[in-house]
Amino acid sequence: MSASVNQNYLKLNESYLFAEIARRIREWQSAHPELSSQLIRMGIGDVTRPLPKTVVDAMVKAAQEMGVAETFRGYGPEQGYDFLKTAIQSYYKKFGVELALDEIFISDGAKSDLGNILDLFDENNTVLVTDPVYPVYVDTNMMSGRKIIYAMSSEENGFLPLPAPEYRADIIYLCSPNNPTGAVYDREGLTKWVRFAQENNAILLFDAAYECFVTGDLPHSIYEIPGARDVAIEFCSFSKKAGFTGTRCGYTIVPDTLKRDGASLNKMWLRRQTTKFNGVSYITQRGAEAVFTESGEREIEENLQYYRDNAAIITETMDRLHIYYTGGKNSPYIWLKCPSDMDSWSFFDKLLNEAYVVGTPGAGFGKSGEKFFRLTAFSTHENTREAMARFEKLVQSMSL
Amino acid sequence: MSASVNQNYLKLNESYLFAEIARRIREWQSAHPELSSQLIRMGIGDVTRPLPKTVVDAMVKAAQEMGVAETFRGYGPEQGYDFLKTAIQSYYKKFGVELALDEIFISDGAKSDLGNILDLFDENNTVLVTDPVYPVYVDTNMMSGRKIIYAMSSEENGFLPLPAPEYRADIIYLCSPNNPTGAVYDREGLTKWVRFAQENNAILLFDAAYECFVTGDLPHSIYEIPGARDVAIEFCSFSKKAGFTGTRCGYTIVPDTLKRDGASLNKMWLRRQTTKFNGVSYITQRGAEAVFTESGEREIEENLQYYRDNAAIITETMDRLHIYYTGGKNSPYIWLKCPSDMDSWSFFDKLLNEAYVVGTPGAGFGKSGEKFFRLTAFSTHENTREAMARFEKLVQSMSL
Predict the structure, then answer these.
(1) Residues of chain A with C-beta less than 8 angstroms from the C-beta of B2
(2) In this complex, which of B115, B119, B278 lies closest to A248 when CB atoms are compared?
(3) B2 to each of A150, A222, B361, how far by Cα in Å?
(4) What residues in chain B have per-residue pLDDT under 50?
(5) Can you give the residue ranges of every domain in chain B?
(6) I need a surface site. Which of A84, A150, A278, B225 has the fewest CB within 10 A?
């Protein structure tokens, strides 16, 4: 006998994107110490606004309850407290989506659930991801040795690839609004994917982590599409909506009607979570509940508007420069075509060296990103304006 | 194509133990509504004392920091903040165990990590568990289709089974102090397991969730045993130590020196956690850090002493009645032999019907538990005393 490791881990690529960015910044800083203070980071994928007061107050109250015998809470339900599930249920009603409480599972974040959900599926299933892609979809499937195929995005399809007969896949990831492209599927696009999943008996894993940025008539939830309850699992999070990236709370919807091989995926997920998870902190769940109160919603909207204003500063710059981009309207991400047909790492270096601005090279998200670049709306107004002024000057100088 | 489910899930047994206990209590209550108020629950596996003031204060402060731009924290390190890892590092020094910070991984609890660690191992590995067993060890391995073998416990080995040549296993679970038996391995016993793992190139998964109840010279950590760094992963939690069952924080130690198939298990776990996990709430981590302050330690010791006093009330009763038991001395669990050679479910019914006291039938934890019964120290002093008075009266009446 001898313990042996999961060999799939040994085949994983190093996740070098952000490490490489950090390395190039360090190198630039040591070459130009006098310029370091002028560096503006527009590659941030993390929120920067503090938690809303209503959320903080709810967590302070909950923490104090935990210190008193009469209101102390021990183990809660692994799938979350009803008070929070009820608040989420009401939120979905705003989009016309009816959910039963037992279809809502509270977790410590969408990233955990996106990885852990794969426990439920056969390792021989083939996975389809859209390229460019959030690397977690790829790595988590490589860890269990699944075959991965790619639906390529491009300027031609507006970075919103649609189903094609050659996509022979059992599990399909969609992220809308998309990370990294910011592109958002409309009802027609999502309906095509739901029909495709129905026809192929596939499962859609729908990542709605950025739904809070959606405005107008675009769908927030896959369940706004008829038939989605029979093909889709939806992942969402308080990270971007309410600034919970360091507070950790998300939720996953597994419809009661979703079955494969005669098994209920809802019951399987319940079994997975009750066996390998012990629920989210009571304090955190009270904070998340407060997100849906009147004052909570108002305060959150102020933060979201702050980021939207940053996004508008960026998209206005792109519009003036006639640079092709997706996102920025219903997303904190702006995915732009590198000027002068540059590749993304060359443009990264140029922007760093000549404008002291950091973004994220599209190549880090897949082949379709090789000539694209991601900027984010999570900086301050001041820095966003200054970065865009420098960006504009740089691009204008390039076309002289 | 067609999405297919992980067939191993379909082979899982229903986890019916606590559901069946609840059913029998409901039945008894509807038959005897006049006695319901006299029911005392001694099967509780959850803490009941509130969080220490020092911990609450730290979490209140941290929640308030999250509401201010200057002190707001977004994504933290997936493997935990250094401030908490440093506190844990110092705690281990008290047992003479030196850990590097990158060997300590903070998580939302030992249950999550005990399940998720299996991602790192080949599915063809054979698993050894001691019987009676915490059901999570069995279910998580059944979910990935691993073969499971059992090391049987009994009065003869004091519910502390030792290695035997016929245990051909790659992964070995040990829980000490044990759930459900409360039995604690001494250095000699653990040394035998470490040697056995070395000889068989096996991995020890050491569950130290109850180490805070250990007194005297018994080991708190597997790393107190020479050689353990090359064979063992240790799981621990703030749940029982500091009442965090509803607050959720734990930690896992993966030594830098632990390698299999040429791969570092530390690096593999780091890759697993950075890919499928996003860290524990900053607020919770500040609460956990406070556990190790002077006032935190003092307040926690008061709570632990409260439970120890309950355990002593129970063990004194067993001693007077000359009932064989394990645990109670370095554990909140007392594992007793059912009086009059009764089977555990029959004794459950008798204790419920005649003394209005609820415990946990040993059969729920495996074959070795069929004539044993678990009582816990997590009730109040008053209820523990009253329950033991009734227990004593019942057992005395049985021997008349």
Answers:
(1) 170, 200-202, 260
(2) B278
(3) 17, 20, 43
(4) none
(5) 14-43+296-398, 53-292
(6) A150
Report the DSSP beta bridge partners of residue A207: A175, A235
Q: Is the pLDDT of residue A18 over 90?
A: no
CB contact under 8 A, B4 and A59: no
Contact A235, A250 (CB under 8 A): yes
SS3 call for B212: helix
Comparing CB atoms, the residue among A9, A66, A276 nearest residue B140 is: A276
Phi then psi for residue A399, to 5 deg, are: -95, 0
- With the C-alpha atoms ordered A265, A267, A269, A272, is the resulting torsion angle positive or negative? negative
Task: Give the minimum alpha-carbon distance from B79 to chain A in angstroms, rounded to a whole number.
Answer: 13
Look at B276 and A5 and tell me if their CB atoms are within 8 Å. Answer: no
For tokens 């792109």, name the residue: A318
Under an 8 A CB cutoff, do B260 and A4 touch? yes
Mean pLDDT of A196-224: 97
Q: Does B64 touch chain A (CB under 8 A)?
A: yes
Which residue is associated with the tokens 């080995």? B157
Which chain A residue has its CA at the smallest distance from B122's CA?
A6
CB contact under 8 A, B2 and A282: no
Six-digit token pair at B124?
């063809």
Note whether B176 contacts A: Cβ–Cβ < 8 A. no
> For residue range A114-158, what is the model confidence (pLDDT) as tens digits?
999 999 999 999 999 999 999 999 999 999 999 999 999 999 999
Candidates B274, B283, B380: best to mutate against A (most CBs of A within 10 A) is B283
Q: What is the pLDDT of residue A92?
A: 98
Taking the CA of residue B299 and the nearest CA in chain A, the distance in Å comes to 12
Calpha distance B238→B244 (Å, rounded):
5
At the topology level, CATH places domain A53-292 in Aspartate Aminotransferase; domain 2 (3.40.640)
**In this predicted model, which residue has the larger pLDDT, A1 or B40?**
B40
β-bridge mates for residue A121, sequence order: B5
- For residue range A47-63, list pLDDT tens digits in order: 999 999 999 999 999 99
Question: In the CATH scheme, what architecture does the domain A15-44+296-398 have?
Answer: Alpha-Beta Complex (3.90)
Q: Do B74 and A143 touch (CB under 8 A)?
A: no
N-to-C CA span, chain A = 69
Q: At what angle do helices A381-398 and A294-321 cross, to 10 degrees?
A: 10
Q: At what angle do helices A53-65 and B53-65 cross, to 10 degrees?
A: 180
Which chain A positions have a beta carbon within 8 Å of B75's beta carbon?
46, 245-246
Residues in chain B closer than 8 A to A9 (CB atoms): 120, 263, 268, 271-272
Instruction: Determine whether the interchain pair B4/A46 forms a contact, defined as Cβ–Cβ distance below 8 Å.
Output: no
Instruction: Quote the minimal CA–CA distance from B319 to chain A in Å.
Output: 31
| Domain B14-43+296-398 bears CATH identifier 3.40.605.10 | no
B63 to chain A, any CB pair closer than 8 A? The answer is: yes
ipTM of the complex: 0.96
Task: Let me know if B383 is exposed, middle or buried by CB neighbors in 10 A (0-12, 13-18, 19+).
Answer: middle
Question: Could you write out the DSSP letters of every residue in A56-106?
Answer: HHHHHHHHHHTTSTTT---S--TT--HHHHHHHHHHHHTTT----GGGEEE
CA atoms within 13 A on the CB side of B127: 25
Contact, A1 vs B200, CB < 8 A?
Answer: yes
Place of tokens 């690529």: A13
Closest Cα in chain A to B9: A268
Contact call for B126 and A47, based on CB within 8 A? no
Q: Where are the alpha helices (DSSP H) in chain B?
A: 17-31, 53-65, 82-93, 110-116, 135-143, 187-200, 239-242, 265-276, 282-290, 294-321, 344-355, 381-398
How many CB atoms are located within 10 Å of the residue B393 CB? Answer: 12
Q: Which two tokens stand for residue A329?
A: 């309207």
